[in-house]
Specification:
The structure is a homodimer of 159-residue chains. Helices cover 38% and strands 14% of the residues of chain A. Chain A is an alpha+beta fold. Chain A is extended. The two termini of chain A are 26 Å apart. Chains A and B meet through helix 1, strand 1, strand 2, strand 3 and strand 4 of A and helix 1, strand 1, strand 2, strand 3 and strand 4 of B. The complex binds manganese (II) ion (MN) (2 copies) and zinc ion (2 copies). The structure holds a DNA duplex (30 and 30 nucleotides).
DNA sequence: CTGTTATCAGGAATGGTTACTAATAATACA
DNA sequence: TGTATTATTAGTAACCATTCCTGATAACAG
């Protein structure tokens, strides 16, 4: 399973340039619109394909829904969730959040409020008990799937 | 604009029961499958409609992508983002995260690692400068849109 | 009961994304 | 500098989750 080496096409480099140019966070169709001004014949599929290539080679990052489906929770109390990157299931965190950490976070948030921030969300990624049992998972597949969620954000840390 | 008062239909109560029964976090189609065992003629549209009604009346919660589109970032350095609940844009947080808060968070995370957690994501919600300018926004529309993102999760706090 | 009308089932439409295919062009190397 | 190999392309169809539309049904106020 050797990775086929990839070519630098005109389309790919233009897409990269356009994503890097501004410091905003364009959606795929916004990238498409920008690129189309320079390459009027480019297709949406090419944009999506190259964005993925660029993400997996680390040249850009993907922000976005980790899983596209909405989920519902009959428990309306405040609690944290862990999304399993193995199977995509969502579990309540068995361990209650460290209160001091959270309150520090909220204190920091308070300072940010005057800058327009008034809410946050903290979510966890990991492996559910079922997926943990299927050993070797961590070593094999984990690197592939979450090229978008694993190391993606800010504070995400490897073990 | 008085809200039309809602009826308690058989379908609605069954959907509520099924979401509340287990403590997992079903997707809409999983709810559909469960409900269908009791109401074989129910339709997917009914499930979606009622899930939304139940969410907005506070009986259940919605977890899920706040915005369904992926976004891309040409800046691969670690940094936080704020999603504007007014227009949906994503901005870099002007203010760097408080290091002590983040390190505390990661310390707490370390403890969780042995429970299968090995990553997290922290994102912020707020109003971008453009939307902040359109005053009254906060008072008018904010309550409607984020019935799902505003107070939804764990640590989300009002100002 | 009865009239009003919120809600229903069914199906079509939408939006974002991915998959397929024959044609094209980037690169290794002769 | 050709030429062969094959990754990549444009275009289009398929996909999936969700929303919208319709005439029929049923909840419930009076
Ligand atoms: Mn939960
Ligand atoms: Mn950014
Ligand atoms: Zn799992
Ligand atoms: Zn905005």
């Amino acid at each position: 399973m050797e990775q086929k080496r990839q070519r630098m096409t005109h389309q790919r480099s233009v897409i990269l340039e356009e994503v890097q140019r501004c410091q905003d966070h364009p959606t795929a169709d916004e990238v498409y619109e920008r690129v189309r001004k320079r390459l009027p014949r480019i297709s949406m599929g090419t944009v999506y394909r190259n964005l993925d290539v660029l993400v997996s080679s680390g040249l850009i990052r993907k922000l976005g829904p980790d899983f596209p489906q909405m989920r519902f929770d009959g428990d309306t109390r405040d609690h944290y969730h862990m999304t399993c990157i193995g199977c995509g299931c969502v579990e309540d965190m068995g361990i209650p959040p460290q209160d001091d950490t959270v309150s520090q976070l909220e204190t920091a948030l308070g300072k940010l409020t005057k800058h327009g921030v008034f809410g946050h969300r903290l979510e966890f990624f990991g492996l559910c008990p079922d997926c943990r049992e299927k050993k070797g998972y961590l070593l094999e597949e984990v690197q592939e799937i979450p090229s978008s969620e694993e190391e993606q954000e800010h504070g995400a840390e490897g073990e």
